[in-house]
Amino acid sequence: MTTIAPHPTATAEPAPPSDSSAPFGAMEALYLFAIAQTVLFNPTLTSVGTLRVYLCGVTWLVVGAAAVVRWTMTSDVVLLGANRRLAVVCWVSITAVGVHLLLVGPQVYTAGSFIRLLYAPLGVFCALAVYERIDRILDITVGLVGLECVILVLSRLGSPVDLSNRLNPASLGGRNAFGAFLMVLIVLRVSLWAYTRRRPPWYVLAGLGSSLVALVLTLARSPVLGLVVGLGAISVSALRRRGVTGRSLRAGAVIAAVLSPVLSQPAARKRLTSLSLDNSSGRNDIWGTALDLFRRSPIVGHGFGSFNVTSPNIIEDFVSSAKYGPVTPGVAQPTSSAHNVLLQVMAEGGLIGLAIVSWSVYYLLRACWHAVLVPVTLAILVDSMFDTFPYVVQMSWVLGLVFATGLQRRSSEEAVEASPLG
């Protein structure tokens, strides 16, 4: 197990296990406010050229500033170690982008490109600042998301379940990003539940149920596939430890009862079970273009934010609809997403970019790794083969919940083991 080196000005004694019943401080309250604003109220504040600036984005910058203050004032060895790793990752990334600008030119970079580069590490940084209370924050987040899902689902009652009536909240990144967001929350919270064997509060259970229904109603297949893989990993782990129990059977029955009204719809079943390349919403065309771009510049790529391909099969893309008017199925529609994180990074950053991204994730994850993250990591990997959810500004902050949850579980258990009574 990797040990986090102590800060020079701090003692190397492990922090005590977090007291989840302790009241929230100002940082925790501000972090929760940013989550609530992002999930429930995500209005457009203004437009700068082609860039849409969200009010919640400004709030996350404020939370980031507060996290910097906590970083400079804390003596928590665990937080200092994790933040140092994140700082190293950011320094390497900034240096790489600067060199990349010199190699490929600044014309391929946009304001949106730099914002996307900022918000994923910003979301992780803010979550690490409140890692000791992340279990309660995760519960509240699931409850808030569940409320938003109820609002979205109610707006679809009485409408047929098909491609023209699927959930597609543009202010939350669109159907694919929103579906991936729900997938991460569901798998992460269920994994924590299975690991600790502590039943969540009623509002968390309700939030998980409504999130599950909303995820299926997006009719986005990659998040559903990731969900199946994540929950499957949890089930295998639970069965290995405890075997088939009455609780697991009841959980399966409840999930089936929640989803049966949706899955009984022929359109939903057909959509979620059609996984061929011929019915991939243009992904086969997009992936081919991404590979072609990579072959043209395999070492350094073409620049972050440079991917822009036209697919004759991509339909209902909310970005295209906003920029180019109503989408007509069968007509070529531009997209800035390769619908595959690996191919996107290879096309835009080449082998050097892929190496830096891979190392950054591995280096930071080493400080936060815990068994509870195995299912959600698998789920994210599966979804990332068909979409680029971590690129979406409105949703990339949820990665912070994943890292902070692992850090909290790991630090608490290490503190217990190091205790004389452990």
Care to describe what's here?
By secondary structure, the chain is mostly helical. It has one domain. It is 64% helix and 4% strand. It is built from 15 helices and 4 strands. It has helices spanning 26-40, 55-73, 77-104, 111-129, 134-154, 174-196, 202-217, 221-242, 246-263, 266-273, 283-296, 318-324, 341-368, 374-384, 398-418; strands at 44-48, 51-54, 309-311, 333-335. A two-stranded antiparallel sheet has the order 1-2. Strand 1 (44-48) and strand 2 form a beta hairpin. Helix 8 packs antiparallel against helix 14. The longest helix is centred in the N-terminal third of the chain and has 28 residues, at 77-104. The radius of gyration is 21 Å and the shape is globular. 40% of the residues are buried.
Quick summary:
With 422 residues, the chain is mainly alpha-helical.
Give descriptors for this structure:
mainly alpha; 422 residues; single chain; two-stranded antiparallel sheet
Helix/strand layout:
Blueprint: H1 26-40, E1 44-48, E2 51-54, H2 55-73, H3 77-104, H4 111-129, H5 134-154, H6 174-196, H7 202-217, H8 221-242, H9 246-263, H10 266-273, H11 283-296, E3 309-311, H12 318-324, E4 333-335, H13 341-368, H14 374-384, H15 398-418
Antiparallel strand pairs: 1-2, 3-4
Helix pairs in contact: 1-2, 1-5, 2-4, 3-4, 3-13, 4-15, 5-6, 5-7, 6-7, 6-8, 6-14, 7-9, 8-14, 11-13
- The computed structural class is mainly alpha
What oligomeric arrangement do these chains adopt? single chain
Spatial separation of the terminal alpha carbons: 18 Å
Number of strands: 4
- The whole-number mean of residue pLDDT values reads 79
Biggest sheet statistics:
2 strands, antiparallel
Number of helical regions: 15
Q: What series of H and E elements makes up the topology? A: HEEHHHHHHHHHHEHEHHH
Helix content: 55-70%
Strand order of the largest sheet: 1-2
Shape: globular
- Beta-strand percentage range: under 5%
Rounded radius of gyration (Å) = 21 Å
Number of domains: 1
Return residue spans where pLDDT drops below 50 for at least 5 consecutive residues.
Answer: 1-19, 315-325
